Amino acid sequence: MNEVRIDKWMWATRIFKTRTIAAEACKKGRIMINGVTIKPSRMIKVGEVIQVRKPPITFSFKVLDLTERRMGAKLVPGYLENVTTPDQYEILEMNRISGFVDRARGLGRPTKKDRRELEQFTDPGISDDGFDFEFDFEGPDDEE
Asked: For the segment 40-72, what is each residue's pLDDT rounded down to a tens digit?
């Protein structure tokens, strides 16, 4: 076996949970080889680098071996090598830190008070009246 469909390979190596999801990612233009979007039927070879865009970052995998059969997670490192650049992981970490403040499980939706506190925490520069600057109502003509 010297060529395999990319959707089968990504499903077999556990990049995607189902082959259908892998094929949809190809159709949506989220899978690239050498900067070119590809179809799910594209045959891949050993040594190619596949870029998988899962927002907010793009993962890169080098094909080490080919397979059409799904395998256990412990066997995956023999079939692909993660060559994603460290700056992509920094983007992911920054997104985690800045985006969402963890809530304890089971508390449900935040109340209006919780939302206001969260907004004040994330944007501390804005005062309660909504303005972050002072108005000078006296113009040059207003002398008393």
From this structure: 999 999 999 999 998 888 899 999 999 999 999
Q: Counting beta carbons within 10 angstroms of the beta carbon of residue 30, is it exposed (0 to 12), middle (13 to 18) or buried (19 or more)?
A: middle
DSSP 6: H
Q: How far apart are CA 37 and CA 23, in angstroms?
A: 12
Q: Is the pTM of this model over 0.90?
A: no
- Of 40, 39, 35, 50, residue with least CA distance to 80: 50
How many CB atoms within 10 Å of residue 106?
A: 5
Q: How far apart are CA 13 and CA 77, in angstroms?
A: 9
